[in-house]
Amino acid sequence: MIAALLLLAAAAAGDPQTASQWREQATAADAERLEQWQQALEIGRSGVVGAGEGAKLMARAPLFATDAALAGSDIPQGLYNCSITKLDGDADGGLPYIAYPAFKCRVVDQNGRKHFTKLTGSQRTIGWIDKADGKHSVYLGTLIYHYENTLVPYGQTAKRDQAAVVQRIGSNRWRMLFPFPAYESKIDVMELTPAE
């Protein structure tokens, strides 16, 4: 299944040597969301603190800090443990803080670009990470469910499009910030650490 996903991703994304950079690829909606990552993170943090669960944020510092980004956002290729936390769920029954167990993700260097795949879990994302500046890279990808064999390319279905700011926050620790996702939260924060 993993091999099939990688083949689907390669076919959908095109040749990495000729692919456009993220600003040219991003939909208008995703470009706007990416510009608002700090606002989304602050709103998400406020929702968790307001619900009396602020200690959960502090316990994982600096994962949820607005100013946590360090120089060198370019994540090395390799296999990662990637855990997703959803902050400030929807008012209609959503929880303020949901932390999922770590999944497996893979980063592959392909001709100077980074290809990212979330390998396990019921919801997976596949796409490309491009450098933005010294402290930020940008991920654009598409959502695929574990039971599907067909990948909908990025930019064709807004609710499947995935956009995140990628930052290094420790010596071997990165995060992907998905501001204002289509479902369940104000921001999704994926923590990535190398798998041993």
Secondary-structure class: alpha+beta
Strand order of the largest sheet: 1-3-4-5-6-7-8-9
SS element count, helices: 5
Question: What Rg, in angstroms, do the CA atoms define?
Answer: 16 Å
Shape: globular
Approximately what portion of the residues adopt beta-strand conformation?
Answer: 35-45%
Which parts are unreliable, with pLDDT below 50 for 5 consecutive residues or more?
1-20
H/E series, N to C?
HHHHHEEEEEEEEE
Q: Termini distance?
A: 22 Å
* Helix content range: 10-25%
The tally of structural domains comes to: 1
Largest sheet: 8 strands, antiparallel, barrel
Question: What is the number of beta strands?
Answer: 9
Mean pLDDT, rounded to whole units? 88
Q: Describe it for me?
A:
This protein has 196 residues and is α+β, with helices and mostly antiparallel strands. It has one domain (2-194). It has helices at 2-13, 22-25, 28-35, 37-50, 54-58, and strands at 78-87, 97-99, 103-110, 113-118, 123-133, 136-145, 161-170, 173-179, 187-194. It has an 8-stranded antiparallel beta barrel. A hairpin with a 2-residue loop joins strand 3 and strand 4. The protein starts with a helix and ends with a strand.
Highlighted features:
196 residues, alpha+beta, eight-stranded antiparallel barrel, 5 helices, globular, disordered N terminus
